[in-house]
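## retry 2 of 3
previous attempt timed out at serialization; input unchanged, resubmitting
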Amino acid sequence: MGWTLIAVSGLTFASTFLGGTLALRVTGSLRYFFAFSAGTLLAIALTDLLPEAIAASPETPGARLAVCYVILASFVLFHVVERYVLVHHVHTHEADGRATPAHVHDQSHTVGGLGASGLVLHSLLDGVAIGAAFQASSQIGPVVALAVIAHDFADGVNTVTLTRRVTPSRRRALGFLLADAAAPVVGALVTLLVHLSERWLALALAFFVGHFLYIGASDLIPEMHRGERSWSVVVVHLVGVIAIVVLTQLITL
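## retry succeeded, writing output
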């Protein structure tokens, strides 16, 4: 598992760095990627991680209920931390006139360095999610890795966007981008040193169900709906969902 995990970690680095690099140059069609990424994350959480967490937990009502509580706690935790501590992303509407320049300026300073730092922490947990999934089984690991690689592209975009709201410095933006790209590699490698028992593995997978659901619901889905209404964005979103479902079925054959 070690070399596979290292190789997958390298792909997460490349995906994050590519997203950030493109964010420095183009922004017009990124919501299509957000749409696809949201679909993959939601499908991974509900059709792969959740069943795996239930299967790995002891067959007692209390243990199965604990999985549900951990999912809820994870979702609430990320909501509270990112909204009231890190504030890693704020949707403003400068273009439609609903935000004053002073308000936008205050929001920019709120979400800049802290926001990018929050994404680095989030990416670290992405790496841990990959490692935990590979510990769960050789089938679930690649599927989770695919989802993380997909949405790490969006993380790279967000990291650069948030940093550039505070400062025009490309060097600072690239510094945060490199930290964000390296974080999942570190998180995945940590799991090589820590092996979870089946009971704790079930709870760890449940934690990442809540984590993935929060990312999709709070970050990616709002991004895919920004701008004009477009059915093509919805189609791309559904393609992301279907792709994970089909891939999961093919792997389990």
